[in-house]
Write a structure and sequence with these properties.
By secondary structure, this protein is mainly α. Helices cover 60% and strands 0% of the residues. The chain has helices at 6-12, 45-71, 78-94, 99-135. Helix 3 (78-94) packs antiparallel against helix 4. The protein is elongated, with a radius of gyration of 36 Å. It binds zinc ion (ZN). Zinc ion is lined by residues 19, 21, 29, 31, 39-40, 42-43. Zinc ion (ZN) binds at residues 19, 21, 29, 31, 39-40, 42-43.
């Protein structure tokens, strides 16, 4: 019944049926279906799980980045440093921050503390110097006891 001439030809031109899925706008999907499947890569429910997983993985990464951005503290006051240091210590204990990372963070905190102290000293000196001139008589005005 089967003609041997047709078989190789139909095998070579494996029919690529169109995807039976719909786009988000409700139009018929223009993509070809996957071999042996009624849907394209986007609309295949089996593959959709993969796509969702990939998307949510990407989302998880960007969410984590966002939360780091949100967590970014100025650390320009002693109380901010205290809070940050406490957080780092807790994170290390919980295992959410690697000890090496924590070490670098705490090193940064100690530098930050020194800078804070230095700038605090600077400000106090500047304030003192601003008051100085009025309190000191100028040279050459000591004219007592000829
Ligand atoms: Zn499709």
């Amino acid at each position: 019944m089967r003609s041997p001439a047709v078989a190789p030809q139909s095998a070579a031109s494996t029919p690529r049926s169109p995807c039976t899925g719909e786009t988000k706008s409700g139009a018929a999907c223009q993509a070809f279906a996957l071999p042996g499947r009624p849907f394209c890569l986007t609309h295949d429910p089996d593959r959709a799980a993969d796509a969702t997983a990939a998307r949510s993985k990407g989302a998880a990464v960007s969410n984590r980045l966002r939360s780091i951005e949100g967590k970014r503290q100025k650390l320009d006051t002693v109380s901010a440093l205290v809070e940050f240091t406490g957080g780092v210590i807790q994170d290390v204990l919980e295992g959410t921050v690697l000890p090496d990372v924590a070490r670098v963070c705490l090193y940064g905190v100690s530098i930050q503390r020194q800078l804070l102290e230095a700038s605090d000293l600077e400000q106090r000196l500047a304030a003192l110097e601003a008051r100085e001139p009025a309190q000191h008589p100028q040279k050459g005005q000591h004219q007592w006891g000829r």
